[in-house]
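Two proteins were folded this term; both appear here.
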Amino acid sequence: MKASRPALLFSVLLWLLSASTLTAQSEPRLPFLEPADTFHNTRFWTCAIAGGVIYTSFSIGLYETWYKDYELTSFHTFDDWDEWRNMDKAGHLFTAAMESRLSFGGALWTGMDRRKAMWTGAAVGTLLQTTIEVMDGFSAKWGFSWADMGFNTLGVGVFVGQELLWQEQRITMKVSNTRPTYSQLPISAQNGDAISSAQQRANELYGSGFFETFLKDYNGMTIWASANISSFLGPQQQDRRFPKWLNLAVGYGADGLYGGYGNSWTDEADNTFVLPTDAFPRSNQFYLSLDIDLTRIPTQNRFLKSVLNALHWIKIPAPTLEVDTLGKMKGHWVFW
């Protein structure tokens, strides 16, 4: 089911990070973590070969673990707009933007010209996301989604647009996820004596381990656009002691999702369960919060700087204001 898609997409981020750093150092005088000032042929081809191997392995592994056990058909499209209250679309935007940015960083590391590195990052992000959509297009269970492709393109555009406009990434797409406490109250099947619960359904959809639920559980996931305040101030303001690492973030989340379009499901024994709408309403949440741009924290330590760059896509816990589509507003001293 497409609820599991973020696990695959986040894995791509980690592989891309490896592709941009796991390379050979051909010139001893060039520190490993320091980007080359000029085009470095060995670094470039090492990255290119490593990227090709990773992409091929990813494609084969994705097919073997995800699509192989489902019926395949001729290429087709389908409309999945508003499935999972578009949390999956927000995930596509986030993933495409981060894939492009990470690949861009790897290209800069090889000494590639900034403009060429930008288009390289955009091409890698587009390729990875399109590969998944094409595989969907041959799956009888899903199909090629133009809505997904639209948000993939938007995510790449978020990266490219900032490079063209500012030659820096002032707005970073981030993610956070705190799993809700699910109800364990028993729910009887409508056509039998079987029993289930909201927690059992959530475990079936999203898993139960920390990393699995962090990557998959839409009910706890928030996708953020985190804007660096200092970068939008004029040069005179930037010279003052305003913290250059302070961000303002807006987030998008959802709650009450126990199915793509509704909170009813049928188990393997054909028992049908329906969660009552009044007790389990489906809704979206909008957030306003502070954040930290880890890439702008001043440090001369190259290793620490690399670690901060690798973690820049994770939203930092902070005080947050929440408004949802049910008309409720509340504040959180710390939200993640």
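Next, the second protein.
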Amino acid sequence: MSDTLPIEVALQAAEARLRSILQTVPDAMIIIDERGRIESLSTTAERLFGYSMGEVAGKNIKMFMPTPHREQHDGYLKRYLQTGERHIIGIGRIVTGQRKDGTTFPMHLTIGELRSADKHYFTGFIRDLTDQQLTESRLKELQSEVTHMSRFTALGEMASTLAHEINQPLTAINNYLRGCNRLLERIDDPAAPMLRDAIGKAADQALRAGDIIRRLREFVARGDSERRIESLPKLIEDASTLALIGAKENGIAVAFRLDPAVDLVIADRIQIQQVLVNLIRNAVEVMAEVNGVRELDIETRAVSDETVQVSVADTGGGLSPEVARHLFQPFVTTKQKGMGLGLSICRTIVEAHGGKIWVDARPQGGTIFRFTLRAADHHEEETLVG
């Protein structure tokens, strides 16, 4: 009797510890025996799969699996017990789980093994990956949207710039042809009328080309965009998720100084995210090439009741006054492989939103890019089309 009591006390204490673990372990935890029957279920696992321990005690773990894994599980377990060959024990992998309501979800599963006397147990630690996959999916979607808009805007910016440049020589050609036509009027030659007709037609075609270019510029300048009331902190969060890839690896410390009073703005979400991604990526790339302190500060503040300002400051090498003066013009770049359209596109987008964008030298060294947007409030219309 005296030997039995301590054993019972020890067992009760062990069971109490196990219950405490099952109630507090953050990941879902399931213990099964060598036949796949559920022995224990943590509180997190109950919430994750939608079953209580009372509903599943003694039942096969395969009830937590969708087809075809459900039908294959017993075979996997039996083969391991017979051969001892490990395939997933001790190695985490991503699998699919099934809840009580029949819905499935991605999860990371790690299996451990425990032998107690003549009994054999397996412990599964499960982490729900639903939120992670949603985040990754949203990130890919956002990246695709910004990339598409970036290419479209770059094409428009290039078209607008080329239109401006081409229109000037077309105007000169037209003027020279008109001058030639007037000179031919003074020449008494049988071929003069034919030459005047040909030159007139050439001048008409130059005017026609100029008119096409003018309409192209007007179309690009109009730039159909959809502006709505957006949360500026959310725009910055989404853009930073894309733009800060690689920042940590380059030892760049990022600080967000977002004024709590600055929230809603009137903006085309994708276009303003494009501006933010461009400015942040530029800052990351600039600082990756310098030694010393690497700090990126992203800040918002209210300029007035109608205007908010966004700043992206870096501790890079800075800009010379000459480069800074022309930085927002098309085809001006400080990068060896850059096209010089990024900042020009930013200027086009910000100005189309009724704001302005500029660059300042950072007093401690580096550069600060600033741009403004129109502030919004909850009383404005839900949708504004620009």
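Residues 336-340, 381-386 have pLDDT under 50 and may be disordered. Residues 226-385 form a domain with the Heat Shock Protein 90 fold (CATH 3.30.565.10). These notes refer to the second protein only.
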